[in-house]
Design a protein that fits this description.
mainly alpha, 2 domains, 73% helix, elongated
């Protein structure tokens, strides 16, 4: 098996087989994409020399597999154009019918010219076959022109919508698809030049070099298209992983606060909790905010001063001091709530440091505080704050507040 087959067959068969299990009931965009992969998979597989020889021997048609390969390529191009139209919101309608009619005309023209052109046996590459004929030239021009029309239309759609799309994964995918179409056009231009020069009798490069160049351009075209298709999914997966990491980082703080204010926690369906970490992160941020609003009635300016004084004595300063002080205040407020203490500062609305931050900064701050809620210096400061003058005379808050 050739290196190009070893490189390309997994690229086309893995998404084809993986998507097959989800095809029933899938949206039109998914079905079209599967059609592109399936058409390419058939074309690439039939084009493998060993398989090509078997099919040609079984059918008795010289180079018959080339027609199957090229018709599959035309089908892939037509479906790819529909996929791009669906992706850019221009699905179906008159253009789709013209696309289908163009595919039918090109397939018939390809079959007719293939039937009358001189053809080698399966051991010779049809593209570089030396015998010249008008039918053979027309065969390749029909294939080239039809594919070029599809790629040009896809590139134009991607160009128009890519310019106006908001920055993000979809815009990047459209630009990658445009690059794929551009390299595909270079591939077709190279092939058309070779065929035209050879047809008029001029000397061209070595057949092996020509075939190698076309294969390299074709591989680049397909790889860029594959990258364009999977890019939004990769970006979504990356965002989910990032959200899940942030959920884990703020979870100790959320767990501490919900022990005292369970009423602020809204249950999420298990499926959403597992599959939508972004929503889970947003919910936990809201619930932490709500808990803070409910608990700040147990805090006043004197608590902050006492906490910071104790933490400075423990050697903390700067941002480390601010983070630890917030953790101490929250542990004190949680302990006061669990002890059933009355709201001493309900009229003052004392605000914690997280108030007023934007969402990303707020999450980052919560993560820093969450990392400190179980720290020994925070526990010691919380116990000191609890035993300070004016504090409720109930058992001191301990580490058991954080499960």
């Amino acid at each position: 098996m050739r290196p190009i087959d070893l490189g390309l067959l997994p690229v086309v068969w893995i998404p084809t087989l993986w998507s097959l299990r989800k095809l029933r009931g899938a949206p039109r965009r998914t079905r079209l994409l599967w059609g592109v992969w399936a058409s390419w998979a058939v074309s690439m597989t039939v084009g493998v020399p060993a398989i090509r020889r078997l099919i040609d021997a079984a059918t008795g048609v010289a180079s018959g597999t080339n027609l199957l390969v090229h018709v599959s390529g035309l089908v892939a191009t037509a479906i790819m154009l529909e996929f791009v139209r669906e992706m850019t919101g221009r699905s179906q309608g008159r253009a789709s019918r013209l696309n289908l009619a163009g595919l039918a005309v090109a397939a018939v023209a390809l079959t007719v010219t293939f039937a009358v052109m001189p053809r080698p046996d399966g051991e010779v590459v049809l593209l570089t076959y030396g015998e010249r004929s008008l039918a053979g030239y027309l065969y390749w021009m029909v294939l080239t022109v039809d594919t070029a029309i599809g790629l040009t239309a896809s590139a134009v759609l991607c160009w128009v919508h890519g310019r106006h799309a908001s920055p993000g994964p979809v815009r990047t995918a459209l630009w990658l698809m445009r690059a794929s179409s551009a390299i595909g056009m270079a591939y077709l231009a190279h092939r058309a030049y070779f065929l035209t020069v050879r047809h008029i009798g001029w000397k061209v490069g070595e057949p092996a070099a020509v075939a190698g160049t076309t294969q390299v351009l074709m591989v680049l075209t397909m790889l860029l298209f594959a990258l364009a298709v999977v890019w939004p999914s990769l970006a979504e997966h990356r965002e989910k992983r990032a959200a899940a990491r942030r959920v884990r980082r703020i979870h100790p703080l959320w767990q501490l606060l919900q022990a005292a204010t369970p009423e602020v926690v809204l249950p999420l369906p298990d499926e959403l909790r597992r599959n939508n970490p972004g929503l889970r992160l947003y919910r936990q941020v809201i619930e932490i905010r709500d808990s803070m609003l409910a608990l700040d009635r147990h805090l006043g300016p004197a608590h902050t001063a006492a906490a910071e004084e104790h933490l400075r004595a423990a050697g903390l300063s700067g941002e480390r001091l601010a983070v630890a002080a917030e953790a101490v205040l929250l542990k004190h407020a949680v302990a006061a709530e669990l002890a059933g203490c009355s709201a001493e500062f309900s009229g003052q609305q004392w605000r914690l440091r997280a108030d007023g931050l934007d969402l990303d900064a707020e999450i980052a701050w919560f993560a820093k505080v969450a990392a400190k809620v179980a720290a020994p210096e925070v526990d010691a400061a919380a116990e000191h704050l609890w035993s300070s003058p004016g504090a409720p005379a109930v058992g001191a808050p301990g580490e058991d507040l954080v499960g």
